[in-house]
Amino acid sequence: QVQLVESGGGLVQAGGSLKLSCAASGRTFSIYGMGWFRQAPEKEREFVANIWWSGGSTWYADSVKGRFTISRDKANNTLYLQMNSLKPEDTAVYYCAAGRNWGRAGSDPSKFGSWGQGTQVTVSS
Questions:
Q1: Angle at Cα 32 formed by Cα 17 and Cα 79, nearest 5°?
Q2: Of 58, 32, 46, nearest in space to 91 by CA
């Protein structure tokens, strides 16, 4: 019952930056937390980062720690992912997701019930 639309993807050179946005609508009051996932060609969908919607606590995959920052604007129901120091291996379709209380499993895609359509991020070397 939550609709999500990602934007901000594109082509960037290695070492560059990009900021993704995810606009949420519908029953946004039901959101416990939100996350970003990515999927490269012929790869499994991979956890990137998540955020507790109310308090703002965050968690990152080791591969992006220190380079990516997840944030949210509760008043505007918008999620962001600031990506710095991009590497070619970051190339993937990035998906925004909304979920309920996930306990200690916030990196599990099955804990997220609403997904955006994805936005392509391509990092050239």
A1: 20
A2: 46
pLDDT at 90: 98
Locate tokens 């997840």: which residue?
70
Q: What is the secondary structure of 51-104 as a DSSP string?
A: EETTT--EEE-TTTTTTEEEEEEGGGTEEEEEE-S--GGG-EEEEEEEES--TT
Mapped onto helix, strand or coil, the DSSP state of residue 74 is helix
In 3D, which of 109, 116, 39 has the Cα closest to residue 78? 116
User: What distance in Å separates the CA atoms of residue 29 and residue 17, rounded to the nearest whole number?
Assistant: 31
Q: How many other CB atoms are there within 10 angstroms of residue 39's CB atom? A: 15
Separation between Cα atoms, residue 75 and residue 58, nearest integer Å: 18
Banded pLDDT at 104 (limits 50, 70, 90): confident
How much is the average pLDDT of 56-64?
A: 97
Contact criterion met (CB below 8 Å) for 23 and 77: yes
| Residue corresponding to tokens 């993807």 | 9
- Pair of tokens at residue 89: 């291996």
